[in-house]
Amino acid sequence: MAEESQIVEAGKISRWLTENGFEHEFLGPDHLGVEMIKVPPEFLIPISTALYAYGFNCLQCQGGYDEGPGEQLVSFYHLIKVSDDADRPEEVRVKVFLPRENPVVPSVYWIWKTADWQERESYDMYGIVYEGHPNLKRILMPEDWVGWPLRKDYISPDFYELQDAY
């Protein structure tokens, strides 16, 4: 028997973005049912500004991950609508897929100030450069550290010795 592929209908937020002319790709809901959208790096600021105007006034979490050696890096944003009368805030996840060689994306710091240290951590661990960030420098690793420790192809340098920590 041939399996029928399921057609996933775009979510409320994705439909709103499409109706208003914002280019993106609907990725479906995540395991919790939160709508996920894929945004090209050059459209992150216009779409983020639109989502802020739509009511997503809180950047709950920003982070990065590595899809695997030789694969893309991803900068993600979990946005919520915070209001006094909401039983459960509306949520959306925005993902920006970036090339390993030159992972550059605009900073959303100027829209959500909570992006400040979160973007710095993604920069420090994955090497994702957030253009326009007011203070993009290492936050967890020493300034002279070589490489990006959470990339899946990262090779730990030989000069760090565990016995120095004791």
Description:
The chain has 166 residues and is of the alpha/beta class. The chain has helices at residues 12-19, 44-54, 115-126; strands at 25-29, 35-38, 58-66, 73-80, 91-98, 104-106, 129-131. A five-stranded mixed sheet has the order 1-2-5-4-3. A two-stranded parallel ribbon has the order 6-7.
Question: How is the secondary structure organized here?
Answer:
Blueprint: H1 12-19, E1 25-29, E2 35-38, H2 44-54, E3 58-66, E4 73-80, E5 91-98, E6 104-106, H3 115-126, E7 129-131
Parallel strand pairs: 2-5, 6-7
Antiparallel strand pairs: 1-2, 3-4, 4-5
Quick tags:
166 residues; two-stranded parallel sheet; 7 strands; globular; alpha/beta; 19% helix; five-stranded mixed sheet; single chain; 24% strand
Spatial ordering of strands, largest sheet: 1-2-5-4-3
The helix fraction, in percent, is: 10-25%
Poorly predicted ranges (pLDDT <50, ≥5 residues)?
none
Query: How many helices?
Result: 3
**Given the C-alpha coordinates, what overall shape results?**
globular
The helix/strand series, from N terminus to C terminus, equals HEEHEEEEHE
- What oligomeric assembly is this protein in? single chain
Average pLDDT, rounded to a whole number, is 90
Sheet with most strands = 5 strands, mixed
**What is the CA–CA distance across the termini?**
62 Å
Radius of gyration: 18 Å
Beta content comes to 15-25%
DSSP strand tally: 7
Structural class: alpha/beta
